[in-house]
Amino acid sequence: MAASSRALDNAATQKLSPELTLSEPQTELLHRVMSFCERHQADDSALFVIEGAAGTGKSVVLNAIFNALQTRARSGAAGDPLKGLRNMLIVNHPEMLKLYRNIAATMPALRKSDYERPTTFINTSAKTGRRMDIVLVDEAHLLLTRPDRYNHFTQQNHLEEILRWDRSLPREKLPWAERPDTIDEVGSVYTIQGFDLNYAGVILGPSLFYDVKHDRIGVRPERYEDSAAFQGRDGIAAPEEAKTRVILNALNVILTRGIHGLFLYAHDPALRERLLRT
Description:
- Pfam families: SLFN-g3_helicase.
- With 278 residues, the chain is of the alpha/beta class.
- The protein folds into 2 domains: 2-164, Rossmann fold; 196-276, no CATH class.
- The chain is 38% helix and 13% strand.
- It is built from 10 helices and 7 strands.
- It has a 3-stranded parallel β-sheet with strand order 2-1-3. The chain has a two-stranded parallel sheet with strand order 4-7.
- The radius of gyration is 21 Å and the shape is globular.
- The relative contact order is 0.11.
């Protein structure tokens, strides 16, 4: 029984389950969004933006909101303004999509088909003329802002197309963070973003070093291996500063994944020594 409970606690599905007890601010936000949906149910369009730092539980709240919407859409009382609505949650993150769909299999009001990638949703809507009443978007910063023909997105902006219509389906059923065969692998911001883990181990690679003069972490963008992270930033002012922000934002994401603890290893000896003195 103890081993079974521990496995359940470790499962990422439990950390994103709509059945989790929300904090008071999260509960208040859920009620605000539900009221917003009720007020604008008959409008052609309306937009509600949720903002928050990495690791603050935005995805947890969003899935709780979606579960509440689908519960009322599918089994609401007569006269409920949200009853019978067609809703969808979209996320441009294959690992998160797997997680959401796995959770849906355990919840009576949710279906795996309630969750989709944005490009698939947009292309299917354009082909069939299907429209949704309410669309929730998780990890909205991952939406495309220019065409990506390799992934079959020929329009200009994901969000604009989603509002207009307001898969690649990987063979693996489990997301990377939950697969037993990945225990000896090193993930990245792409495989772990949006997930909460009991414990996380982070390697601070060669792009990060100890800035002795200012007693802080320094950044070497030229040693950052994820060159794709810098795509689409041509023509912006201060490109090196922008690259530094991209790296630090990614670092912030992975450093906030561990709920109970975080293990750090720094490639730079000076940074490693400084962290040990913290």
